[in-house]
Design goal:
The chain is α+β, with helices and mostly antiparallel strands and about 120 residues long. Helix 1 packs across helix 2 and helix 2 packs across helix 4. About 55% of the residues lie in helices and about 15% in strands.
Length: about 120
């Protein structure tokens, strides 16, 4: 858990659960693919929703913290990522941005946190 803010933590958990459901539904399992400079890389999700939450901490919340002085204002961002019915279009866009950062990291082009 990256934040001590109860509301932000709760929203990040909600997003992690919705995102895990989205990933497993679209990939057919607990994995996803990233593009590392034209090379497809298979990434297994270890730990289910907790594993996805770790990715959210490392690629979304850490970026907010590093780039915005009031990073726990990320409540607004996280609130847009999931709803009671699941992941939102905005949440999918954030996920795409995170996978792009992962691909850039794997390809050695910077971006994101090394996983």
């Amino acid at each position: 858990m990256m934040t001590k803010n109860f509301q932000l933590n709760s929203l990040a958990n909600q997003y992690a659960a919705a995102l895990y459901d989205h990933i497993t539904a679209t990939s057919g399992g607990a994995y996803f693919m990233i593009d590392a400079c034209g090379q497809s890389v298979h990434v297994d999700i270890i730990g289910g929703v907790k594993g996805v939450r770790d990715l959210i901490d490392g690629y979304a919340l850490e970026a907010l913290r590093d780039n915005y002085p009031q990073w726990e204002g990320g409540i607004v961002l996280m609130a847009k990522c999931a709803s009671s019915s699941g992941i939102t279009d905005f949440g999918v866009e954030i996920w795409q941005s995170m996978t792009n950062d992962m691909g850039a990291t794997v390809a050695g082009n910077g971006g994101g946190v090394n996983a």
